Amino acid sequence: MNGTSINELVSARDVAKYQTDGVVALRNVLSQSAISELADALAQNMQSPGPWANEYAANSKQGRFFDDYVNWARFDAYTTH
Q1: What DSSP character marks residue 22?
Q2: Domain-by-domain residue ranges, the chain?
């Protein structure tokens, strides 16, 4: 995304869809290497959670919902992408 303005990535239609639906898929915004770096950072984050981490599933049969706050300073990929 370096050097690309938000207006080049997000169209007026995307904004309208987000305002209507509350979600929009922005495809090809991140490179595959950025996605890999972020996936690695997330795996590290889950292995070494911060003080505000939480697991929200009531039991292991429900799957996993992991949440952690204020990690951009702990993992470089969170600040560079």
Answers
A1: S
A2: 1-29, 31-81
The identity of residue 15, as a single letter, is V
Q: What is the DSSP code string of 49-67?
A: --TT-EE--SSGGG---EE
If we measure between CA atoms, which residue out of 29, 3, 25, 28 comes closest to residue 13?
25
Distance of CA 47 to the CA centre of its chain: 17
The SS3 call for residue 17 is helix
Tokens at 6, concatenated? 């938000």
Q: What pLDDT, in 10s, does the model give residues 9-30?
A: 899 999 999 999 999 999 988 9
pLDDT tens by residue, 17-66: 999 999 999 998 899 999 999 999 999 999 999 999 998 877 777 778 88
- Give the pair of three-digit tokens for residue 62: 């429900």
Judge whether 16 and 26 are in contact, CB under 8 Å: no
Task: State pTM to two decimals.
Answer: 0.72
